[in-house]
Amino acid sequence: MKAGPAAAVEQGAAATRMRLLGLQRAPSLAEQGAEAIVAGIASGALLPGQRLVESELAGTLRMSRVPLREALKILETQGIVESTPHRGTYIPALDDTRIDQVCAARIALERLAIPDAVKNYRRAPERLLQLDQIIATMERAAEQLAWMEVGQADLSFHREICRASENSVVLTLWETLARHVLIVFGQEMRGEGDAKILGPHHRRLRDLIAAGETQVLLKEIEGHILRLRKRGAANGRRRIGG
Fold first, then answer.
1. Domains, in order of start, for the chain
2. What does the H/E/C string look like for 109-147?
3. Predicted confidence (pLDDT) per residue in 75-98, tens digit
4. What pLDDT is stored for residue 229 in this prediction?
């Protein structure tokens, strides 16, 4: 890990705190390690194609090899890292096919969540305050081009919608996908133009929820999730990593 390993660890710890906010059970060391590795990939401190050496990672993350191996097994199960007998554990290339699959799964899950979420927000409009706070955090981070914080705020916004649906199956599946979403976000969001559109995009979704515009929201969520993919296609986006 040559590029900012300490920063990646700190970002991973912050990511863990944000993701587990409101849950009763503290994360295990293995889960904390997994979050830190994902943060490293999303931030660019860990690169696609890079081999993950246990001794180096253990020192950087300040944890023993036992929970680190558990963390790597978790990420391997989720398809975030891969392992082969001769190459060891490494970060696979992030190509268009993988990104498209992540986006398609995310769209399907959020479309399942939206109808019930809108009903529940209409019944308890005070829950919208949480979305407002997340958007404000996102906008502050975007002004500073603090991409990891922006990515976490984006995840938090969409997680809240899934939570508001009170559909435990959707939320469980969304959490499984969340690490992939953060990595994709980290790879594709990197310019001032991206930062400027984040607030308005999410405020638009928030206002549709508040107004009970379920059908409009179901149509707009796909465009919202795919906005960067469309831009990337127009610019001739290439495969990231070898």
1. 5-90 (1.10.10.10), 96-234 (1.20.120.530)
2. HHHHHHHHHHHHHHHCHHHHHHHHHHHHHHHHHHHCCCH
3. 999 999 999 988 899 999 888 888
4. 66
